[in-house]
Design goal:
The structure holds two protein chains of two kinds. The model of chain A has no long low-confidence stretch (mean pLDDT 91). Chain A is built from no helices and eleven strands. Chain A is mostly beta strands. Helix content of chain A is 0%, strand content 55%. In chain A, a hairpin with a 3-residue loop joins β4 and β5. In chain B, strands 2, 4, 5, 9, 10 and 11 form a six-stranded mixed β-sheet that branches. In chain B, a hairpin with a 6-residue loop joins β4 and β5. The chains are: A mainly beta, B mainly beta. At the A-B interface, β4, β5 and β9 of A face β4, β5 and β10 of B.
Amino acid sequence: DAGITQSPRHKVTETGTPVTLRCHQTENHRYMYWYRQDPGHGLRLIHYSYGVKDTDKGEVSDGYSVSRSKTEDFLLTLESATSSQTSVYFCAISERQTNPAGLNTGELFFGEGSRLTVL
Amino acid sequence: GENVEQHPSTLSVQEGDSAVIKCTYSDSASNYFPWYKQELGKGPQLIIDIRSNVGEKKDQRIAVTLNKTAKHFSLHITETQPEDSAVYFCAASNQAAGNKLTFGGGTRVLVKP
């Protein structure tokens, strides 16, 4: 299994409070991602990182910020949590590799998820 | 951006029967189509993928087909076993634009013994 650790694994918080989720990897992969999983919506990309201090928005980035100060850590912050942010959050990592045909073969490896409940 | 639709949302099959999950995508520039399996309480794991220069790919009991003209791709599981029970996600991406995947809504597969 890829070395990905998410913390905390479970959190209950109240509306308006700040929350930070941490993703830690031991694989030295360049790319890191935060997804949220909700019934019927599959996995939706929140933010991703393509290197230290290099981040970009995904399709559902409103209300979230990220930081990556080290290769191994990618933090997701909810500045002021809302009930709509109740979800299961997954971190993923990948490494851009190319096969002999020059095509990217970067598989995503996922962590085990962090369940966040905002009351 | 890309939009991926996945059907059905739930699928119940008898052990030994086949299961088929279908996905459609909207962006004709997408060229990479992986399938992920998620077991209860775990993160998704890649089980098979296909690229736009290939029409079909098989790995033991699972196979994927791709129809670029119609913009749809399918996962086929033959001789289903109880351990195939899980949630399956299709996804699509344009790898020239990075490895950001757009996922379908998921299919919960239940294999009844």
